[in-house]
Design goal:
By secondary structure, the chain is of the alpha+beta class. It has a domain of about 120 residues. It contains two helices and 13 strands. A hairpin with an 8-residue loop joins strand 12 and strand 13. It is globular, with a radius of gyration of 28 Å. It starts with about 35 loop residues before the first strand and ends in a 5-residue tail after the last strand. About 20% of the residues are buried.
Length: about 240
């Protein structure tokens, strides 16, 4: 006897249950910081500050936070137009900040800088440079602190010595320069030292040693007119503060 009913045929293939459409990823009119899973899925914004442009991002060595520079859209446009007037390549300046995985943002300094900030090797601190000053910030702390390392005087003296050695080398007259640090002498005038320039880059490989480079840099749209001179590396030996 053949019975008709709802018994499924052995060759019947069941249809997959339709999945609900994924929620759209939020978008903004200015550049925000997004992260996603390693397979490219689950794209989501870490920052949601409309009107603020984020650029230059660097993961901490422990992958717990991101270091970034940011400035307002209006500031971005003013700097871009200023560079355009001077026929320079536009290199924006920004205020350094730490962006944690949970989206919490901590502004490190209200001053702007073109120098890319760096993480310490153990991710506990961040270094940023402003002209001839280096500042060190706590990265992960309920009561974060910061320290200032003013380097203007040391760089003035280093430039004075460097240029004296150059003159000695050119003239080949050893008597024209004497490396005598005894006694107190006035600081040289910065306008008289062509090798005295601001900090342009930072490198932090060793927990106790921070390297920084000074130099005169002009990046022009016409590369034949670009200038990079008196590029010199220095180092700061760091010690824990009691």
């Amino acid at each position: 006897t053949q019975v008709e009913g709802n018994t499924p045929d052995a060759n019947t293939v069941s249809s997959p249950t339709p999945q609900s459409p994924a929620e759209p990823t939020p978008v903004f009119r200015t550049e925000q910081v997004y992260i996603c899973d390693s397979d490219g899925n689950n794209l989501r914004p870490l920052t949601q500050n409309e009107g603020l442009i984020h650029f230059y991002i660097a993961w901490s060595p422990n992958s717990e936070a991101i270091l970034a520079l940011a400035l307002t859209w209006r500031e971005w446009e003013l700097e871009r137009l200023e560079a355009q007037k001077k026929a320079e390549i536009f290199i924006p300046s920004g205020r350094p900040r730490i962006i944690e995985r949970n989206g919490r943002v901590r502004l490190l300094d209200d001053r702007k800088t073109k120098v890319l900030p760096v993480w310490s090797p153990d991710s506990s601190k961040v270094a940023a440079a402003f002209d001839t000053e280096v500042r060190i910030y706590d990265a992960f702390s309920d009561n974060p602190t910061q320290a200032s390392i003013p380097l203007k005087n040391q760089l003035l003296l280093a430039s004075e010595k460097y240029e004296a050695q150059l003159k000695e080398k050119i003239s080949n007259d050893a008597s024209s320069y004497s490396d005598n640090n005894s006694g107190v002498k006035p600081l040289p005038k910065e306008e008289e030292l062509v090798s005295y320039n601001p900090i342009i880059s930072l490198i932090w490989f060793d927990q106790r040693i921070l390297y920084f480079q000074t130099g005169y840099v002009k990046e022009m749209i016409d590369t034949a007119q670009s200038v990079r001179s008196f590029l010199r590396w220095h180092r700061v030996i760091l010690s824990a503060q009691g």
